[in-house]
Design the sequence.
């Protein structure tokens, strides 16, 4: 591997570490939601987002460490949960305590989507480009889900 490739990979790791920090922040916001619910369970659509955010963190950690094989990335791409956006309805009134926090999370998700989309568009490494596309697509869906939940 040449010097240019080494520098490119080092730069990619730095970008991935920043992406991981952003994902950890948003994941923390989602984990804090049950405290606001006073015993209510998170709606299934929010539970699905939490699972996907957990998987984003894992993928980024594996990419940073250089342990993510092409086959594993392909598997992650193939196993994406399918959200039925048309079936998602605004949250019932009993979830009112979550509205402000969900609005805040939705803003973060929009920023994360733009970040991953930009990385996808600019990446020169095919492997990284595919990972960024996966993450951008999932974040876009998260934004749409949150917007539908918020009405």
Sequence:
């Amino acid at each position: 591997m040449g010097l240019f490739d080494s520098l490119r990979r080092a730069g990619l790791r730095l970008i991935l570490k920043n992406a991981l920090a952003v994902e950890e922040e948003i994941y923390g916001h989602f984990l804090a939601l049950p405290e606001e619910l006073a015993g209510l369970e998170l709606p299934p659509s929010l539970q699905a987002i939490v699972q996907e955010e957990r998987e984003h963190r894992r993928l980024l950690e594996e990419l940073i460490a250089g342990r993510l094989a092409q086959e594993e990335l392909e598997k992650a791409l193939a196993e994406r949960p399918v959200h039925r956006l048309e079936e998602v309805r605004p949250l019932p009134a009993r979830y009112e305590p979550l509205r402000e926090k969900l609005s805040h999370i939705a803003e973060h998700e929009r920023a994360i989507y733009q970040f991953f989309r930009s990385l996808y568009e600019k990446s020169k490494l095919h492997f990284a480009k595919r990972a960024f596309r996966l993450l951008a697509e999932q974040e876009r869906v998260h934004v749409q889900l949150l917007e539908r939940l918020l009405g």
Remarks:
- DSSP finds five helices and no strands in the chain.
- Residues 3-150 form a domain with the Ferritin fold (CATH 1.20.1260).
- The radius of gyration is 17 Å.
